[in-house]
Amino acid sequence: MDQSLTQRVMLPDETATIQLGADLAGALSASPAGWLILLQGDLGAGKSTMARSMLQTFGHAGTVPSPTYTLVEPYDFRSFLAYHIDLYRISSADELEFLGWDDLVEGLRIVEWPERIPDIEAEADLLITLSYDGEGRRAALRGTSERGAALLEGMNLN
Ligand SMILES: Nc1ncnc2c1ncn2[C@@H]1O[C@H](COP(=O)(O)OP(=O)(O)OP(=O)(O)O)[C@@H](O)[C@H]1O
Ligand SMILES: [Mg+2]
Questions:
Q1: Distance CA 74, CA 94 (A)
Q2: Whose CA is nearest to atom 29 of ligand 1?
């Protein structure tokens, strides 16, 4: 399977970002545990909007606080745990370990600012890059594991 295939989606407004997050969560819903999803993009590109939509689609009803200061925000969905993670303040693999990264691997990890730890991509299932496009945004989605690539292929994004 070609894992390097990148799918591109236009996100003209916030609703489109929310829809993409919901679609991803829907596609993942059979077995989100153990998945590692990277959300990359400049300040304000829509990473948190997408993470929030995924968590709400899985059934979280409350607010989705930014993990900027706590670094990890856990969510208990009963059948699996999810972790919303922000690596903006992390600058080395040692710091990542100190944060308890190894204890999170059995849950679904949704990671903002993964570019802080370049090696993380080797572990990941999906790399989603959000960029500015006029007033809106666009997303490039790439499967970085076999199951990640298969998930994207099954989603019919284009
Ligand atoms: N497709 C879109 N088109 C236009 N605006 C959008 C789109 N998606 C999200 N936004 C808006 O962009 C703003 C920033 O979004 P968000 O907080 O999700 O970005 P972020 O990447 O998490 O930023 P940060 O790096 O600062 O945490 C929000 O006001 C959000 O509503
Ligand atoms: Mg954010």
A1: 21
A2: 44
Asked if residue 40 has pLDDT above 70, the reply is: yes
Helix, strand or coil for residue 48?
helix
Ligand nearest the Cα of residue 43 is 1
User: What's the pTM?
Assistant: 0.96
Q: Is the CB of 59 within 6 Å of ligand 1?
A: no
Q: Is the CB of 148 inside a 6 Å radius of any atom of ligand 1?
A: no
> Does any domain span residue 150?
no
Number of domains in the chain: 1
CB of 41 within 6 A of ligand 1: the answer is: yes
Looking at the domain assignment, is residue 151 inside a domain?
no
With a 6 Å cutoff on the Cβ, whether 144 touches ligand 1 is no
Stretch 65-73: mean pLDDT: 93
Structural domain contains residue 69: yes
- Structural domain contains residue 22: yes
Closest to 54 measured CA to CA, from 79, 34, 78, 83: 83
Mean pLDDT across the chain, nearest whole number?
94
Domain that holds residue 102: 6-145
Q: How confident is the model at residue 66 (pLDDT cuts 50, 70, 90)?
A: very high
Mean local confidence (pLDDT), 3-22:
92
